[in-house]
Design a protein that fits this description.
With about 110 residues, the chain is mainly alpha-helical. Helix content is about 65%, strand content about 10%. The radius of gyration is 14 Å and the shape is globular.
């Protein structure tokens, strides 16, 4: 899953934070920093970037929590975004499609 996210334009730490949230469900920033062993100073811009990409949602409950969209929705968002951009190559789109198909077959 990390490789697919990186191919589709996620930075390495963005991919790790997304996967962490996708596997564990809603988490506070503190829980994420402890679980991934990264500083809050590194985490905040990553969470902001993931929210801007539309793949992580922030909830204001008694404590602020972050939650990831499903992997399939994230890939759809990235493919739509990247297909509009001239910077992504057909080969990357093909790799994403192939790896996504493998991911779905593993489940």
């Amino acid at each position: 899953m990390l490789k697919i996210l990186e191919i589709s334009g996620f930075a390495e730490l963005e991919a790790k934070v997304y996967v962490y949230l996708a596997k564990r469900g809603p988490q506070t920033a503190r829980e994420i920093t402890l679980g991934l062993r990264i500083s809050k100073q590194k985490l905040n811009p990553i969470l902001s970037s993931l929210r801007e990409k539309g793949v992580v949602v922030r909830y204001f409950k008694p404590v602020t929590q972050f939650s990831a969209l499903s992997f399939e929705k994230v890939i759809d968002i990235q493919i739509k975004k990247n297909s509009k951009s001239s910077t992504i190559h057909y080969t990357n789109q093909r790799r994403i499609t192939i790896q996504l198909a493998k991911h779905r077959n593993i489940k």
